Amino acid sequence: MQEKLAITVLVITLALFALVMVLYNLMTHKKEDFNQIVLSQQQYDSRIIPFKRGDILDRNGTYLAASEKVYNLILDPKQIMSDPDAYLEPSVTALTECFGYDRNEIMNLIQEKKDKQYVRYTKQLTYEDKTKYDKYKLDKTKALKKEKKDIKGIWFEDEYKRIYPYNSMGSKVIGFANGDGMGGTGGIEQFYNTTLMGINGREYGYLNDDSNLERVIKPSSNGNTVVSTIDVNIQKIVEKYINEWEQQTGSKKVGVIVMDPNNAEILAMADDKSFDLNNPRDLRPEFTPDLLRQLGIKEAIDDFKRKNKDAQPLTEETVTQHYSDEQIISLGTQVAWNQTWRNFTISDGFEPGSTEKIFTVSAALEEGAITGQEVFDCNRFLEVGGHKIKCVSRFGHGPITVEQGLMKSCNVVMMRIAQQIGKDKFYKYQQMFGFGSKTGIDLPGEADNKSTIYTVDNAGPTDLATNSFGQNFNCTMIQMAAAYGSVINGGSYYEPHVIKQILNEQGAVVKKVDPVLVRETVSEPTTKFINEALFKTVNAEGGTGGAAKVAGYKVAGKTGTAEKIPRDKKNYVVSFCGYAPADNPQVLVYVVVDEPHVEDQPHSTYASEIFQKIMADILPYLNIFPDTDAEGVPSGDGAKLPEQEGITSETTAASEGEGSSQETTAQETTAAVPTLENGQTVAPEDLNPSEEYVNRQEGDDSELPASVPQDTSESLESESQSIEETTAQ
């Protein structure tokens, strides 16, 4: 045992001796080399050179987002205090006279941090601020030298500040960059973040063999510029009339999309919840402290449930046992941010109503289920699957053609047509038109509504009937706009997009974003039929879109009035999707108004009138000239308060032959006009309403089914969800 211990001690002693020899050798022969290594690892004027985040332009080259160079004021207390008699007073005086800072505060800071070489005192000073200081120092240097004094330990660090010249305009499409410019939240800023970002450079300082300071500069690589499809002037027009609507009438929500139907370029996109991109975390006035607390309590309950799945759920009374008031307000604030930043036009689903009807007719024409010349009989309602499902007209339309079914927004015609198409083909076309799947638009947070749309596997007769006129399934505005574009442009379904080009720092095109043709949906004859019918919907007597007419232009479009869940609340989403010219569509405008702030909501005219004002300004701007034949179709009563579209609760399978065809081929609709119970003929204005209007009378025994697949609540209430892949920083 003693021998082993002796050997161990001997080995350790030899190892230590060897280590001492190695260290001695390094100190005597390689001292300068290792001194240089150590010194080179110290910061000798080494700094980051920030990249400039790429700009965002509109389609005409107008700046929507840009990066402006600003300067951070850096203090070096160690250098100042290396000779306080010479440097302290002049340096503090320079700061107070140039920037108006408090003398005592700066003096105390420098003395407290006298061992620090880097103190960031102020962020994002302007070029004018820096220039003012540089001039002051230059003017004072000569006089100070005579007194053996100098201004030391003050320098500026470059940085870039993201600015948005139009403040809140286009906020949902543009999005905003976070403070450091390394990430974007919402809109183009988030979706194209990697394109807009660059790579920081660095300036290194090190000591050479002679212990002299050397510099190596690795320049920064700036981000690329993104050219969007947005047109600033069209965006302004859209937001102008959204604001006008909100000030005069208002609603729970309103959204507008303007699109080129021939390539799915988005020209404008907005809703009523805009925010200042330069101050994105400034909450809107409606978010009062009480509301923030309510939102925070709800979010805290959900947060606890997510983190403690097996624990007893919290209640409003017990939530304060696990979350402080500060935490609750913080959670409520983040919910408020997410609600503000959420893009209604792509993230929220709703029952579209009668705007869906063109897809029912298009599918039937494509499959040969109808020729377009049929005449159906509308007797107020149809009974399907135990539900009495009403037409938009509470009196019924009597004999009515397919074209008139679109013009007058007849639910019964659509239900009959859907029965003739059959479930398999109807839902095949639903999928083909893009309902239940994302459009692929290059913006974050798009909803697909896959779980809130019926398929051939889970749809029953009632579902088929109600889906034929746009109830009992959800879609987003962008899904509807893209599908409309494909029907009216000859059948080409393009992927909606908001970017045209990507440019490098020198302005050269590095990528051109061409329209992506996804699929063909309908044939040219079907497009022609739909365009003619929708032109008459706006311009002919009996059409529900009269309020959308623009003098001198061939405007076409379809009204929509959807009854929201729960049905007994009598809340509605009204909409209008229209375009011009009808025979050669160049621009499409889709307007959705959710719950107008009026007692009698279900008037499609509310949306049609917003559409009309927007289109009247857009068409001349786009150099789309008036058509002298635009008034060739007889018009109705103009823009009276619109009558509701086929959205009431009357749908159901006709007992007298659900699948049977109740049409006669190519016959005039001169059959008996509907009469009231007392035998009096129904007034023409009731048979030919100037708008789509869902008027549920007291004691009405009709019934519209009250759910969508896997969903028992309005999808429009899902605002508390955050922007996809976005955190409220």
What brief labels describe this structure?
single chain; 729 residues; alpha+beta; seven-stranded mixed sheet; 23 strands
In short:
This protein is of the alpha+beta class and 729 residues long. The strands form 7 sheets. Strands 2, 3, 4, 5, 10, 18 and 19 form a 7-stranded mixed sheet that branches. The protein has a 5-stranded antiparallel sheet with strand order 12-11-23-22-21, sandwiched between helices. It has a 3-stranded antiparallel sheet with strand order 1-8-9. Mean pLDDT is 86; it is low at 39-43, 634-671 and 712-729.
Uncertain runs are 39-43, 634-671, 712-729
Shape by Cα distribution: elongated
Oligomerization category of the chains in this entry? single chain
Helix/strand class = alpha+beta
| Number of separate helices | 22
Q: Could you give the distance between the termini?
A: 67 Å
Radius of gyration using CA atoms only: 35 Å
Number of strands: 23
Q: Into which percent range does the helicity of residues fall?
A: 25-40%
Average pLDDT over all residues: 86
What is the percentage of strand-forming residues? 15-25%
Query: What summary fits the major beta sheet?
Result: 7 strands, mixed
